[in-house]
Design goal:
The complex is a heterodimer of chains A (about 475) and B (about 500). In chain A, about 75% of the residues lie in helices and about 5% in strands. With about 475 residues, chain A is an all-alpha fold. Chain A has a two-stranded antiparallel sheet. In chain A, helix 2 packs antiparallel against helix 4. The longest helix of chain A has about 35 residues. The two termini of chain A are about 30 Å apart. Chain B has a domain of about 190 residues. The two termini of chain B are about 35 Å apart. Classes of the chains: A mainly alpha (about 475), B mainly alpha (about 500). Chains A and B meet through helix 6 and helix 7 of A and helix 17 and helix 18 of B.
Chain lengths: ~475, ~500
C-alpha cells in the first residue's frame, strides 16, 4: 500500500484519458466517468487516514533521476489534509460542473482537463521533496490553462495569457529557489521542522532562496503585490473559478509556502534569519489591502476573489507566526476556507445561472427568488467571518492564540481589524438579498437544477458540521502536523 | 570483432568514409538503396560507438597509432570519454535523421542529387567522428575542413536561391574560421615543434612563459576561429539563414551536431594545451562567459521575434550553444560536465524540433508560427513530439533539458558564480515565451462551434519514426540520465582533474 499516493495521482490521469476517448456527444458516459473518477480518488485518499492518524506514512519513489532529484510521493499528515480536502471538494464540484456545463461547448476538453487538474493537485499534496512539488506545480499550471480560456472570448484569452505568464514567472522563481537550496543543502527533501543541512550554510544564499521560493509560491497564493492574475482569471466558468481559484491552485501556492517555512527551513532557522516577521508583515498588508479592495468591487465573483486573497493570507500569517498554535490555526483555516469559499462560489454560480445577476447591485431582493441559495451564502459568509459555532471561529481562535504564543499581539489585532473589514464586504450582499426590495419573484419547486443545488447544500451543511465538530474532524490530523513540526 | 575495434578505433572513420564514397556509385545503379545502406552503416557505427563508450566508462583510454607509427611522429587517435560520448551522439542522432530522410528528401532536393547528398551527409558524419577522436592538430584541421565543405553541400543541396546564398555566406565565414584555426595551429607548431596534442601540451607548458604574446595570439585565434564555426554569439550571423533555408534533414544534423563538434574541439585544445590558469590570466574565461551569457539572452530574444518557424528554431540554437560555452567557461569540473551533457541533450531535442518543423512544412506548407492553429488535431504525432522537445528546451522536469539546467546550476554554484542560475532561469522563461504559444495554438485554438476530430498525420511513416524516437529519447534521458551523465562526468574528470 506504499503506492497509495501514486495511485491517487494515476487514477485521475486514467479517468481523464477515458474521458478524452469519449465522443463529444456521449454526455452521460462522460459525466459518469468524471464523477466516478473523482469519487474513487477521494475514497482512495480516505483509506490512508487510519494509518496516518496512527503516526505512519506511505512513501513511494516513482522515479529516481539522480541522488537528489527524485519523484517521491508520501502520504503524511499535512499532505493528506490537503489531498482529502481537494479530492472531497472535487467530487462535489464534479456534480456541480456536469450540471453547469450541460449547455456549453467543448465539454470533452473541459472535463478531461478538469480531471487532470485533480491528479496535479494530488501530486502537489503528496510530494515528498521540492523537486516533486515543483514538477506538479508546473504541471498544474499547464493543465489549468485550457480551463481558464474555456470560453475562448478575447477576454478569456487575455486572462489566460496573464494567468500563464504569472504561472511561469512563479514557476521560474521556485526553480531558482530549488537550484539554490539543492546546491547548498545537497538535498531537496521535506523534513518536518526543517532540513538539518540548511543551518550554517551561506546566509545570503538562504535569504535569496527564501525570497525566490516565497515569491514563487506567493504568486499562486495571491500574496500582494503578486495577486493580480486571480481576479482576472475569474472569467473562467464558475466550476473552474470555484474549485481552482478558491481551492486547488491558490491552496497549492499556500501549501508550498507551508512546506517551505515548516518543512525546508523550519521555524528555528526562520526565527534566526528574522524572516517570520517579514512574511507576517506581507501577509498582514495583503489582508488589509485585499479586504479594502473587496469592499469596492461591485462584481460578485471579483468581490469573492479579493476576499480569497485576504483569506489566503490568514493561512500564510498562521505559518509566519512560527508557533504551534499559529500553524494549527493556519492549517485549520486552509480547510475551513476551502469548504466555505467553494460554497460562496457555487452560490454565485447559481445566482448567475438562474437570474443572470453578476453584480452586487443586482442582488436586491434575490432572497425571494433563491431563498436556500441565499441561506447558504449567508452561512458561508458568517462562517468565514468567524461567527461563533461556524468553522472560521476555530481557525481564528487558534490564530489569535498563535499570535500571543509568538509574543506578537499586534498580529492578533490585525485579525480583529480584518474581521471588521470582512463584514463590510459580506454584509452588503446579505442585506441586499434579504432586506432590499427587488423585482424577483418566488418560484415553485426546486430553485435551481438538482446538480447545482445539492452539492451547494451538502457542502454548506458539511461546513457547519466541520465547525461544530472540529475536534473530531480536522483537528486530530492538524495536531499530528504540529507535533511532527515542533 | 569488438576487441579488434577497441584497439583500432580508426576503423570506424575509415568504414564510414568508404560507405560515403561508394554512395554516388550506388546511386547510379540502385538509387533507392542508398539510404538503407547508409542507415545500416551508421547503425553499425552506432553499435561500435556504444561499445567504445562502455569501455571508456570503465576507465579505459583507448589510443591508436596509425600504421604503428607512434607519436610524436605518427598520427594518433585517442578515444576519451568525451570523444566516446560525441561518437554516440553523432551516430545516434545521425541515424534518426537518416531514417527521417528516407521519405523527406525526395521532396526537398532534386532527384538526381540524392546519391551525392548522402555522400555529403556521411562525409560530414565521418569528419565529425574523426574530430571527436583526432589526437593531433593537423588532423583536426583536416577534419574541420572536410566537415565545413560537407556541411555547405548539405545546405546548398536544396538548389534554391536562398539556400545557395546562405551556403555561400556560410562557406565564406567558415573559411575565415578555418584560416584562423590554421594560423593558430601554425603558431603552436612554431613554438613547440609538435602537432600531437599531448606532446604539444607538454612542451607548451615549458615554452609559453618565453613567448607570452605568441601564446596570447594563438589562444585568441583558436577561440575566435572555433567560436565562429560553433556560431557563438555574436559570430552566429551565418547560422539562421543556413539553417532555415536548408532541407529539414540538413538543419537537424547541422544544429544538432555540427556546431557542437567545434565546442568539443575547443574543449580538447583549451584545457590540455593552454590550461585554466592562462585563461584566467588573459581574462579569456571571463570573455567566454560573457559571450555565452549574451548568446543565451540574445539568442532567445532574437528567437522570440522570429515568425518563421525554422528561423525561430535556428536562433534558439544560438542560445543552446551559449549553454555549452557557459559550461566550458565556468571552469569547474561540474560545470564542464554540465556543458558536455547539454551537448548530448541539446542534440536530441534540437534535431527533434527541426524534424518536426520539416514535417509541419511538408503537410501544411505553413512556415509562419501564427498559422499553426489546431494543428495538434491534424498532426497529433508530430505536434506531440514537437511539444515534448519544446518543453525540454524550456526545462520542464522529467525531460532531458531539465537535467542540463540542473547540472549547469550546480556547476555555477561550484564555480562560485551563482549569478548564472539567474541567467538559466531567465532563459527558461524566454524559451517558454516563444515555444509555448506554438503549443497552445496547435492544441487549443480551435473553432468554438465545431470541435475538431483527431486524424493521424498525413506524412510518411519514416518521418514520424525519426521524430518519435528522438522525442522518446528526450523523455527517457529525462527520467534516466545515468548513461550520458556518467560519461560527461568522466569526460570532465579526465579533462579537469
Amino acid at each position: 500500500m506504499d503506492t497509495l499516493a501514486f495511485y491517487s495521482i494515476l487514477l485521475p490521469v486514467l479517468g481523464a484519458a477515458l474521458i478524452a476517448g469519449c465522443e463529444e456527444h456521449w454526455k452521460r458516459t462522460r459525466q459518469l466517468l468524471a464523477i466516478c473518477t473523482s469519487f474513487l480518488t477521494c475514497f482512495l485518499v480516505a483509506t490512508a487516514w487510519p494509518q496516518v492518524l496512527a503516526g505512519g506514512e506511505y512513501r513511494f519513489t516513482a522515479v529516481r533521476i539522480t541522488r537528489e532529484l527524485n519523484i517521491t510521493l508520501v502520504a503524511e499528515p499535512l499532505g493528506l489534509i490537503f489531498a482529502s480536502l481537494a479530492s472531497l471538494l472535487w467530487v462535489f464540484s464534479m456534480f456541480y460542473a456536469t450540471s453547469y456545463m450541460s449547455h456549453e461547448y467543448h465539454c470533452r476538453r473541459f472535463f478531461t482537463f478538469y480531471t487532470l487538474a485533480l491528479s496535479a493537485t494530488m501530486g502537489v499534496a503528496f510530494s515528498d521533496n521540492l523537486f516533486t512539488l515543483y514538477f506538479f506545480y508546473e504541471y498544474l499550471a499547464l493543465i489549468t490553462y485550457p480551463l481558464v480560456i474555456h470560453k475562448q472570448t478575447t477576454e478569456a484569452y487575455a486572462a489566460g495569457t496573464k494567468y500563464i505568464i504569472y504561472c511561469f514567472l512563479s514557476g521560474a522563481l521556485v526553480f531558482l529557489g530549488m537550484f539554490v537550496i539543492g546546491s547548498f543543502a545537497g538535498t531537496l527533501d521535506f523534513v518536518p521542522g526543517g532540513l538539518p543541512e540548511i543551518a550554517g550554510t551561506n546566509r545570503f544564499m538562504l535569504l535569496l532562496a527564501f525570497f525566490a521560493l516565497i515569491a514563487g509560491f506567493g504568486v499562486k497564493a495571491a500574496l500582494m503585490p503578486l495577486h493580480s492574475w486571480l481576479p482576472t482569471a475569474m472569467v473562467a466558468p464558475t466550476p473552474v473559478s470555484a474549485l481552482l481559484h478558491a481551492v486547488a491552485i491558490v491552496k497549492s501556492g499556500v501549501f508550498g509556502i507551508l512546506r517551505v517555512t515548516h518543512y525546508l527551513y523550519g521555524p528555528e532557522a526562520l526565527q534566526e534569519l528574522g524572516l517570520g516577521t517579514l512574511l507576517a508583515a506581507v501577509a498582514v498588508l495583503t489582508i488589509i489591502i485585499a479586504s479594502l479592495l473587496a469592499v469596492r468591487q461591485n462584481q460578485l465573483k471579483a468581490r469573492l476573489a479579493y476576499s480569497t486573497i485576504a483569506q489566503l493570507s490568514y493561512i500564510i500569517l498562521g505559518a509566519a507566526m512560527l508557533s504551534p498554535y499559529g500553524l494549527t490555526g493556519g492549517v485549520a483555516h486552509l480547510v475551513n476556507h476551502a469548504l466555505l469559499k467553494i460554497v460562496l462560489f457555487f452560490c454565485a454560480g447559481v445566482i448567475a445561472h438562474e437570474t443572470g445577476a453578476t453584480q452586487v447591485s443586482q442582488l436586491n431582493g434575490i432572497g425571494r427568488r433563491l431563498p436556500y441559495t441565499c441561506l447558504f451564502l449567508t452561512l458561508a459568509s458568517l462562517g468565514l467571518l468567524g461567527v461563533l459555532p461556524l468553522p472560521g471561529y476555530i481557525s481564528k481562535l487558534y490564530l489569535l492564540g498563535g499570535s500571543l504564543q509568538a509574543g506578537q499581539p499586534l498580529l492578533g489585532l490585525t485579525l480583529l481589524v480584518s474581521t471588521v473589514l470582512g463584514s463590510l464586504y459580506y454584509f452588503p450582499i446579505i442585506i441586499a438579498a434579504y432586506f432590499r426590495e427587488g423585482s424577483y419573484d418566488r418560484k415553485n419547486g426546486l430553485e435551481t437544477t438538482p446538480g447545482m443545488f445539492f452539492p451547494t447544500a451538502v457542502l454548506a451543511v458539511l461546513g457547519l458540521l466541520f465547525g461544530l465538530f472540529a475536534h473530531h474532524t480536522t483537528l486530530p490530523l492538524v495536531n499530528r502536523v504540529v507535533e511532527s513540526v515542533f | 570483432m569488438w576487441v579488434w575495434l577497441a584497439s583500432h578505433p580508426a576503423a570506424l572513420v575509415v568504414f564510414m568514409l568508404m560507405v560515403a564514397v561508394s554512395m554516388p556509385v550506388l546511386a547510379h545503379f540502385r538509387p533507392l538503396l542508398c539510404v538503407y545502406i547508409a542507415c545500416f552503416a551508421v547503425g553499425l557505427a552506432l553499435a561500435g560507438s556504444l561499445h567504445l563508450a562502455l569501455l571508456t566508462l570503465r576507465g579505459e583510454v583507448l589510443s591508436y597509432a596509425v600504421e604503428g607509427w607512434l607519436p610524436p611522429w605518427g598520427i594518433e587517435l585517442v578515444v576519451t570519454p568525451l570523444s566516446a560520448l560525441m561518437l554516440v551522439i553523432i551516430t545516434s542522432v545521425g541515424l534518426c535523421v537518416l531514417v527521417y530522410s528516407i521519405a523527406s528528401l525526395e521532396q526537398e532536393i532534386p532527384p538526381g542529387s540524392i546519391g551525392w547528398y548522402y555522400t555529403a551527409f556521411l562525409l560530414l558524419l565521418t569528419a565529425m567522428m574523426g574530430l571527436a577522436m583526432a589526437g593531433d592538430l593537423f588532423n583536426i584541421y583536416v577534419f574541420i575542413e572536410v566537415s565545413t565543405i560537407a556541411a555547405c553541400a548539405l545546405v546548398v543541396a536544396k538548389n534554391s536561391k536562398a539556400a545557395t546564398e546562405a551556403a555561400l555566406r556560410y562557406l565564406l565565414l567558415a573559411t575565415v574560421g578555418s584560416g584562423f584555426i590554421l594560423f593558430a595551429i601554425c603558431l603552436l607548431y612554431l613554438v613547440t615543434g609538435h602537432l600531437n596534442i599531448a606532446f604539444t601540451a607538454r612542451t607548451f607548458a615549458d615554452v609559453s612563459q618565453q613567448y607570452p604574446s605568441l601564446t596570447w595570439t594563438a589562444l585568441s585565434f583558436f577561440l575566435v576561429g572555433l567560436s565562429l564555426k560553433a556560431a557563438l554569439f555574436p559570430l552566429h550571423v551565418w547560422l539562421p539563414d543556413a539553417y532555415s533555408s536548408a532541407p529539414a534533414t540538413s538543419s537537424a544534423v547541422l544544429s544538432g551536431l555540427v556546431t557542437k563538434i567545434y565546442a568539443v574541439v575547443l574543449i580538447k585544445l583549451l584545457f590540455p594545451i593552454f590550461g585554466l590558469n592562462l585563461l584566467d590570466e588573459t581574462y579569456l574565461r571571463h570573455i567566454l562567459l560573457l559571450m555565452a551569457s549574451l548568446a543565451i539572452v540574445a539568442g532567445s530574444l532574437f528567437a522570440f521575434v522570429q515568425l518563421d518557424l525554422k528561423r525561430r528554431l535556428a536562433y534558439s540554437s544560438v542560445a543552446g550553444i551559449g549553454y555549452i560555452f557557459l559550461g566550458i567557461g565556468l571552469g569547474s569540473q561540474l560545470g564542464l560536465a554540465a556543458g558536455i551533457l547539454h551537448m548530448f541533450n541539446h542534440a536530441i531535442m534540437k534535431a527533434c524540433l527541426f524534424m518536426s518543423a520539416g514535417a509541419i512544412y511538408r503537410q501544411t506548407e505553413h512556415k509562419h508560427v501564427n498559422r499553426l492553429q489546431g494543428l495538434g488535431f491534424d498532426m497529433p504525432v508530430t505536434m506531440a513530439a514537437f511539444s515534448i522537445a519544446a518543453l525540454s528546451m524550456v526545462g520542464i522536469p522529467l525531460t532531458c533539458g531539465f537535467i542540463s539546467k540542473w547540472y549547469l546550476s550546480l556547476g555555477s554554484i561550484a564555480a562560485g558564480q551563482p549569478v548564472f542560475i539567474g541567467l538559466i532561469v531567465l532563459s527558461g522563461i524566454l524559451n517558454a515565451s516563444y515555444f509555448l504559444p506554438i503549443i497552445w495554438q496547435a492544441f487549443f485554438v480551435v473553432d468554438r462551434q465545431q470541435p475538431k476530430t483527431i486524424t493521424l498525420d498525413a506524412i510518411p511513416f519514416s518521418m514520424l519514426a525519426g521524430q518519435v524516437i528522438l522525442a522518446l529519447a528526450v523523455l527517457f534521458f529525462g527520467f534516466w540520465p545515468g548513461f550520458p551523465l556518467a560519461l560527461a562526468q568522466k569526460a570532465a574528470a579526465v579533462i579537469l582533474p
